[in-house]
Amino acid sequence: MSEITFKGTTASSKNVTVLKYPEIVKPTLRVETVKVPGRDGELTLSEMPSYEAMVLECECMVPSADKISAAAAWLTGRGNLILGNDPNYAYDAQVIDEIRFEKILRGHAHRRFTVPFLCQPLKRQVEEEDIYMTTAGSIINPGDVTSRPKIVVARTGPITLMVGQYVTELTGSNTPIVLDSDVGIAANLSGTKNLSRYVVGEWPRLVPGENAISWTGTVNSITVTPRWRWL
């Protein structure tokens, strides 16, 4: 049976039948174009590649009008979206537009509707394991694009962390520090204290392919949540 999972809840558990999946779409590259006098065509300007959000539409059905309320409540807000035709990956998705529940045939209780999921452009693995390191080494990014990992550094004193081409100095406290490159914030393990003032330099990122990992100073371990991403 066709299935989608949104916010950790399956369509079938809400009496929703998936009639048609959206096509698998490559997101649009975000670029700035410039017309130069005397030059044919246009120049495109793009530093680090970034992509536009996209709408993925699922056609669905509920067996009767009394199932609409539960389906509508489920299809509200934001969360991970897993599609049955691409089950190893999840999109960061939200539903913000209206959903119309229409009768399929006169005299029948079934209602058909289309769900417009507004998705962030890059999908992630549904199952992903942390990478634990106590010595310098390397990490292979299997994805298509640069990832913005979360890194927990258990250290003693100031250190310098090298992740590929990115260099990050951690000053101050001896306590473990969590670097979240996705939002550009450093915190303690419980997330209750902002420790960004102890971070100098670049937020670590993992480019596609091999990334050397090393450091200076005393590090007991680092734990990397890689957040691999695909187009």
Would you give an account of this structure?
This protein has 231 residues and is mostly beta strands. The chain has two domains: 4-124, Beta Barrel (Elongation Factor Tu (Ef-tu), domain 3), CATH 2.40.30; 131-230, Sandwich (Jelly Rolls), CATH 2.60.120.860. It is 3% helix and 47% strand. It contains one helix and 20 strands. The strands form three sheets. Strands 1, 2, 3, 6, 7, 8, 9, 10, 11 and 20 form a ten-stranded antiparallel beta sheet that branches. Strands 12, 13, 14, 15, 16, 17, 18 and 19 form an eight-stranded antiparallel beta sheet that branches. The longest helix is centred in the first third of the chain and has 7 residues, at 68-74. It is globular and about 75 Å long. The model has no long low-confidence stretch (mean pLDDT 90).
Short description, anyone?
The chain has 231 residues and is mostly beta strands. It is built from 1 helix and 20 strands. It folds into 2 domains: 4-124, Elongation Factor Tu (Ef-tu), domain 3; 131-230, Jelly Rolls, CATH 2.60.120.
Supply database-style keywords.
ten-stranded antiparallel sheet; globular; Jelly Rolls; Elongation Factor Tu (Ef-tu), domain 3; mainly beta; 47% strand; eight-stranded antiparallel sheet
**Approximate helicity band:** under 10%
CATH architecture of the largest domain: Beta Barrel
**Helix segment tally:** 1
The count of domains is: 2
| Mean pLDDT metric | 90
CATH domain class of the largest domain: Mainly Beta
- Oligomeric state of the chains present here: single chain
State the shape.
globular
Backbone CA Rg: 23 Å
| Sequence of secondary-structure elements | EEEEEEHEEEEEEEEEEEEEE
Strand content range: over 45%
Could you name the ranges where pLDDT drops below 50 across 5 or more consecutive residues? none
Our measurement of the CA-to-CA distance between the termini, rounded to an integer number of angstroms, reads 26 Å
Structural class: mainly beta
